[in-house]
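PROTEIN DESIGN WORKSHEET
SECTION A - STRUCTURE
LENGTH: 297
TOKENS:
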């Protein structure tokens, strides 16, 4: 699901629950300003064109194998920076607001996970390993999603919905987060059935330079990963491109398809594609017989 092993997920979940409990943050929407205030952090917004930023953070902080000074000079875009000694996070003000929110939650979780601090303070051999850095980023992504959706609260609400795009829209309205983050959370943390999500650039728009293919994210529930390990994003993307129509906003396609599971059997899926003016978000839902759907209250 998230690329984070089970024991680490449990540890992050406990930290998230403690933050929400101690901060009395139980009712959605969970706001980043309340989290920052509770954790006694500071949040500022930066521009890479600001020469003061270079002088301020050009020290031993590392991103990948590059010193932060080199990253800033080359104007490589960073969503956010965490300055541990100042208990401060810096967020790129040029990003759209939903990405600023995500970056804020992401770096806030970095500050809350004690084993992440060493990475941001030093140049140990382990922290210079790309695989180690990728692991830390996956853990921060997992924790950011949990924190912004109230931990297990989102799952409890999602379980009382019919697995379809309308339910994603309802929960997006409750939690006031972007469609992309809500969609990803729904696929990974709702019903214990085979669910998959594809976030792609639609066929009628030019492909962004930072994407190798039109597929930006391929999200799968644990059940989908287990039962359909051979299904790849490219296979689903072809179906999406064949079955969607150009729209300015809203549902761009509804279709059915069959996928082969690990036992070599054919399984039926229903799919819905929603366009938010930037991406197509397609939800694939296994058609389980005998399941009684519920309605979100």
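SECTION B - SEQUENCE
RESIDUE ASSIGNMENT:
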């Amino acid at each position: 699901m998230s690329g984070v092993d089970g024991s680490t997920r449990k540890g992050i979940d406990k930290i998230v629950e403690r933050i929400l409990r101690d901060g009395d943050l139980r009712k959605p929407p969970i706001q980043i300003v309340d989290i920052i205030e509770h954790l006694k952090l500071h949040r500022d917004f930066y521009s890479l064109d600001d020469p003061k930023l270079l002088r301020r953070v050009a020290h031993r902080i590392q991103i990948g194998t590059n010193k932060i000074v080199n990253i800033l000079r080359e104007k490589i875009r960073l969503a956010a920076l965490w300055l541990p000694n100042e208990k401060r996070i810096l967020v790129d003000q040029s990003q759209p607001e939903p990405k600023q929110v995500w970056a804020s939650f992401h770096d806030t979780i970095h500050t809350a996970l004690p084993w992440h601090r060493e990475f941001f303070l030093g140049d140990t051999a382990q922290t210079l390993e790309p695989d180690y850095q990728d692991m830390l980023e996956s853990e921060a992504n997992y924790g950011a999603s949990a924190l912004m959706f109230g931990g297990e609260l989102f799952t409890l609400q999602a379980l009382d919905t019919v697995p379809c795009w309308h339910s994603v829209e309802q929960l997006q309205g409750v939690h006031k987060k972007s469609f992309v983050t809500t969609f990803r959370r729904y696929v990974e943390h709702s019903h214990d059935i085979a669910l998959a999500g594809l976030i792609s650039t639609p066929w009628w728009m030019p492909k962004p330079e930072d994407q190798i293919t039109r597929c930006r994210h391929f999200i799968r529930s644990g059940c989908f990963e287990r039962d359909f390990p051979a299904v790849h994003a490219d296979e689903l993307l072809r179906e999406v491109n064949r079955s969607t129509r150009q729209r300015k906003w809203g549902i761009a396609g509804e279709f059915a398809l069959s996928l082969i599971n690990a036992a070599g059997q054919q399984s039926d899926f229903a799919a819905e594609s929603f366009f938010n003016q930037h991406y197509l978000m397609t939800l694939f839902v296994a058609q389980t017989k005998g399941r009684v759907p519920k309605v979100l209250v």
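SECTION C - NOTES
Residues 152-286 form one domain.
The longest strand covers residues 250-260.
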